[in-house]
Structure formats: structure tokens, C-alpha cells
Amino acid sequence: MGLTSDSTGISVLEKEFNIKRITPNDKVIALAGNPNVGKSTIFNSLTGLNQHTGNWPGKTVANAQGTVRHKNENYILVDIPGTYSLMANSVEEEIARDFICFGEPDAVIVVADATLLERNLNLVLQTLEITNKVVVCVNLIDEAKRKKININIKKLSKLLGVPVVATSASKGEGLNELLDAVSIVTDGYIKPSPVKIKYVDAIESAVSILEPYIKQHLNDKLNSRWVALKLLDGDSTLLEAINRYLGFNLFKDEDITQKLDEAINILCDAGITKDILRDKIVCSLYAVAEEITSQTVSFEREKYDYLDRKIDRILASKTFGIPIMLALLGAILWITITGANYPSQLLADGLFWIEDRLSDFFYSISAPEWVHGVLVMGVYRTLAWVVSVMLPPMAIFFPLFTLLEDLGYLPRVAFNLDNFFKKACCHGKQALTMCMGLGCNAAGIIGCRIIDSPRERLIAILTNNFVPCNGRFPTLIAIITMFFAGSVLGPAKSVIQALMLVSVLVLGVVITLLVSKILSKTLLKGLPSSFALELPPYRKPQVGRIIVRSIFDRTLFVLGRAVMVAAPAGLIIWFMANVQVGGVSILNHCANFLNPFAQLIGMDGFILMAFILGFPANEIVVPIIIMSYMATGSMIELDSLEQLRELLVSNGWTWLTAVCVMLFSLMHFPCGTTCLTIRKETQSLEWTIAAFLIPTITGILICFIVANTARLLGLA
């Protein structure tokens, strides 16, 4: 973590963890917990809008911190990454451990799931070995009651030796009591005496020999027993961080090195190697967790978790799991397609009404025509297209996607697809990042952070673009409607659109698996890593929170990035369409140059040029095609899809052209926003270029094969 000898107190938080107190008296509280325990719900409920997010220094893991005021005290709540352990097998575990150890928080809230208390106590006990400034929050107590699980909170607090508070964060229950407990701990009104983990005799003997010699160098900054265990464990990364934090190299002390050798000999005589030592430590932790749980938790076994397991027999079954998944996807797409049409049209009408007023303004001040063209017909019109086409589908799709996430269904998707990804030598969690990519590929790239293995994370990043984002949906839907579903009338039309769109998405998944397999055997060789996939309990979704989170955290975030990239693109497009060389626009020159190659892959030069100019935002591909065919010099919208079909057919489009455009829309370079995100996530220009080339080359090859096979068979 780059800790220095003088990095203590406020300087540690500011220099190493980027946590800034507003006033010197503000207290920093770490919020820890396993994934899926409602930690984020607690964080959002306590901090409200007084929060901001970023990345941990030097990491691509999200950092969220916010402020809360309670009883005239200011608390800075730091949401550290969700983790099952502090033994640092991943970046998230390393960050969580280092912040608790070296960030010197005034207290640590460890959130546990009331329905899975025994397993969650593992993290609680590991935290208690590091610090005694701990408050245990037993969340989801309402779900525990629903499942007939009874927890004796007072006895649990007595056995753990620290305050324990029961909460139901989604309902706002118990949060004031949680802050009361934090206040008691941070103000020193009570001195917690955490439970001491008893290890096997050989480990206890080794620790007792080593601990007294370590303690004199710690100055009460760290728990001496825990440091002794870590010296025996030999985690080099952690030991280096401890030495930097203390400003003293423990291994340079002769007494410590001598006693460490004696302690290791004791372990060796007992047959305990370093690998076995960690297993023994974990076994002891779980034994204590089991003992505490047996004394504090009771439940009716015939009713416990019965409904969840009954649902999972269907949703996670080999027979029904994938068909139900496809049906849900189809339903979401149908709702998105049907629901987005009207608001998208209203938004477009409003934005283009503003465009007319802007034009009136420029005419009234007698501005040069080229100024009006650049700013209004170029930059503003492009932005209007992007916003009107992107915003309504995202505003519908992201809440629906978040609803499935909140219900607990998305881990079942990963479970159903895990075997396919394993055969492709990549990570099962890639299924989740693909789902995120349906809303926006940039969001999917950021979601790849959940994959611990760098190799498999990179595969997921390089192949995420094969799943079309909602920016490509309008192009796909328009082509499906004009050339394949146009003859169908009534409600069945949108159903056929959704089914065909699902088929395109399934093709994208198949291509993702094939390319992932090729990458894992060539550029990124390796075997798939194993991982524990938790199937969280099904939960009643919090609709209000879902809407707020999906709109602010996803929709507006992605839209903001798209607008940043689309604005300069509008400028370039206008210049290319209006600046002429030899009486022909630059756009036409480029399209004519590309036409021979484009014909080979079933398209024409104008279509290929539209994809290139659509790099900033996929939404503007069709408007650029229309503009090019009509030679208008600026993007326009036709009144109906029938008019658009007539325009395309008159310019040589056939069913084969439509198929190739759909295939290339599915498989071509990522948009500018996604490329920017890939560059930030990988910190590599080379891998960003690879992410650009891999889908593009794949799309060119498949379009070439399809187009020329159809021509050879006389189908086109």
C-alpha cells in the first residue's frame, strides 16, 4: 500500500486511502461484510446523497464513501469491498484487510447475513483478531424471521465480546441503534473484549514464544497476537505492508528472527507446514463460528429455506434453467422495445424543437452558415440523437436488470452458464458481465472487476462487445422490423421482434464462448479458475431504491460518457458531409474508397462509413446512413420505417444486406465510450487495440462467409 513511517492517523487516510475528514473530529468508520449481505443498502440508507465514489488508489476496485451525522457527531462511512475473508486471496480481500489494519478507522462495522450467520461469522472473527473496535450488524433480520430463524442477539454479543445490532436495512429498521453502538465504541464508553480464538496446542505454543518480542515494536498500532500469526503464515505481501506501516523491519530484530525460527520448529515437529497452518487457522475459526451459532441460532428445519430451494429446483435446473432465462430476457427486451418507443419519440420531438429555436437564434444574429451548421446541425443534432435514442431504453432496461439483481436471480444466470464458460476455459462470472453489457458495454467492462483472475478478467473485457448494448438495439430492431417482421400486424409484431432479438443475443453469446476459447488457447493461455458461487436468498425488491440506483449509478453515468464522446463526433461528421473536394463531399470520397471491400462483406461503402463514423456512439449509425443516401449534409429522421425501407431498397439493400448489417452491428469495434473504459480498466493501450480489433476481424470474417456463401448458392 506504500505506507511510510510517518503515515499515521489522518495522514494514512489521506495519503494512502484517499479518505479525507471534513473536520479533524470526524470519525472514520469502515463498513465490511460478505457479498450479498445488504452492505450497500446500509451504506446508502445512512449516507443518502452525501456520498461519492471513485477507485482505491492504484486499484480498479470501486471506493464509496459518505458522511452521516448522529448525535452531533460526524461519521465518514467507507464502504470497503465485499469479501468472505481477510486472508487476501484477491484484490478486494487485500484492500479490505489493509484498510482495517493500516487505515486506522475509528471503528469497523461488520455486516452479517442473519440467514447465513455461521458462514458470515468467519469474517467477523478474522476482523476481531485485528481490532477490538468492532460493531457486528446482523442484517436481513426480517428475512430470518420469514424463514423461521431465531437469533439471540444479546447472547451473540456476549459470546463475541462486542456490540451486536439486528437490522433490516431495506426497511430502515435498527439503523439508529447501529449508529448508537458505533458511537459507544468510538467514544470509548465501553472497552470491547473480543472472543479469543483458541488454536491447536502447537500453534498456541508458537504464538506464545513469538508474541512478547513482537509486542514491544508495535506501539499498540497492531494486535501482537495477529502479527505473530501472520509472521508464522509468511504472507510476504502483508509482512512488507506491516513493516512499511511500522517504519521498522521486524526481520532485522535478532530476537524476533531467533524466536520465529523456534516457533517454526515447533510447528514442523507437529507436522504443520505453512499450507497446513492456514488450514488449521481456518478450521479453528469455523469451529468457533459453529459453536457460537449453535448457542445463539435456532430454526424450524422443516420450514427453513424451503421456498428458495423449491424455486431453485426450477430456475437452476438443467432442464428449465436456460429456457426460463431466455424467456425472461425476451420479456425484458419486449418491455424495453415497446416501452421505449413513445418516450423516445417525445424526447426527440422536444430536443428537435429546441434545435429549431437554436436555428432561429443563429439566423436572428446573422451568424455565418457554417457556424450554425457546425454547432446546431452537427454537434447539437448528434447529441439530440444520442440522448433521445439511448435514454428511454436505458431508463427501462437498467431498472429491469437491477430488479433481477435485487431479486437474487442474476447469480442463477451465472450458475446456469458456468459449465459453458468452464468449457471455454474462462470464468463463470463472465456471464454476469455479459448481462451488464446488455445495458451498456462500458458498464459490462467495469463489471469485469468481479473476476479475480487477471487472465480471465482480460478475456471477459476483450469479448464483452459481442453482446450488443442498448445503443445497437435501435439498429437491430429497425432492420428486423423492416425486412423480417414488417408483414406482421398487431401485438404479435413486437413479440416477433423480441424473439428475433433474443436469437441475435444468443448468437452473440455463442461467439463470445468461441472467441474466449480461442483466446484461452492462444494469447491468454490458462485453465479456468475455480470460484465459490453464492446463490443468495430470493428477496423482495426495493423498487424505489432500484429506480434511483439504476438511473443515477448506471443510466446517467453511461449517458454522460456517451455525450462526451458524441459531441466532437457530430463536429467531424458535419465537416465530412459538407466539405467538398472536387465537387464531392469527403464522406462520399471515403465511402467510394471503401465500397469494393464493403461489397465483399455484403454491404456498401456508405454503410461501412456509417459504422466508422458511429464509433463515438452506435445510435447514430442509421441516421448517418440516411444522411449519406439522401446527400442532405446533416442527419435526418424519416417519418416511418416504411419510408426508411423504401430508401434502403432503392439504394440496393436486399435481405442479405440486412443480415450482414445485423451481423456487423453485433460484431464490430466497441464504441468510443467503451474503448475509453477498456483503456482505464486495463491500463494498456495494446489491450485496448486488441479489444478493438478482435470483434471487428470476427465480424468481417463472418459477414464475408455469409455474403459469399449466399451468392454462391444463388440466394442473393
Short description:
The chain is of the alpha/beta class and 716 residues long. Helix content is 63%, strand content 8%. It has three domains: 10-186, P-loop containing nucleotide triphosphate hydrolases (Rossmann fold, 3-Layer(aba) Sandwich); 201-271, no CATH class; 321-527 and 534-712, no CATH class.
Walk me through the structure.
The protein is α/β, with parallel strands linked by helices and 716 residues long. It is 63% helix and 8% strand. It has 29 helices and eleven strands. It has helices at 10-16, 39-47, 91-102, 117-130, 141-146, 153-160, 175-186, 201-218, 224-233, 236-246, 254-269, 274-296, 306-315, 321-364, 369-407, 410-423, 430-439, 441-447, 454-463, 473-483, 492-521, 543-578, 586-600, 605-613, 621-630, 641-650, 655-666, 672-682, 685-712; strands at 27-33, 51-55, 62-70, 73-79, 107-113, 134-139, 149-151, 164-166, 297-299, 580-581, 584-585. The strands form three sheets. A seven-stranded mixed sheet has the order 2-3-4-1-5-6-8, with helices on both faces. The chain has a two-stranded antiparallel ribbon with strand order 7-9. Strands 10-11 form a two-stranded antiparallel sheet. Strand 3 and strand 4 form a beta hairpin. The termini are far apart.
